[in-house]
Amino acid sequence: IFADAERFAMKRNVLDTSQSHLAYLESVWQGVIMENSFNRGDFDYDCFRLAGRFPGTQGTNNVYIGSNYFNGWKDPAPAKAVPGRYNFKVVQLAPNDYRPVGAGQQYIRDVVFEDNVVTNGEILMEIGSAENIIVRNNLFVSNNSGAANSILIGSTNNFDYIPSQNIKFYGNTFVLNKGTFLKVKNQTAYMSSALDHSSIEVRDNIIY
Q1: Is the distance from CB of 1 to CB of 41 less than 8 angstroms?
Q2: Residue 64 phi/psi, 5° resolution?
């Protein structure tokens, strides 16, 4: 599924296997993503990707993501990677391109991500160029045996041009085999501000 939309709703769908992102939402201005199941994407892509729009548009804002399943797997025939690894990323809330200020800089704001189940990835969730994000009451589970960061605030591809701020993790449960629970990756060479990510709060979570 691809979308660049305003007032977008996606509810009670099942998406299973893809040679790209299962859901690629380039931007959503007011949206609800509820009670869907996203399963077994290609290793090199995400089960669910929410970005922040191209030049001349409004960015991603006011999105509720609740009661979904995001299930990674060991892709037996990935497009680029060696078989036998769990999905590189399962959920991504971050820009899909590098665009500086004045050239359509992307951002993601005011997103609630709650009551979801996210499983089996090297990175279970990535957040970049984001503000006012609440991640609460979710279950994150992965049997990944590598050294990846289960939650990454930053960007693996350095597309985040502004620091993330006011990111809250409340009441989540993490069941992890190995690796770092949370990594805050400070600014890249592209960032327009001298400030690093700020106001990151992790409270009342259970981590195994």
Answers
A1: no
A2: -110, 125
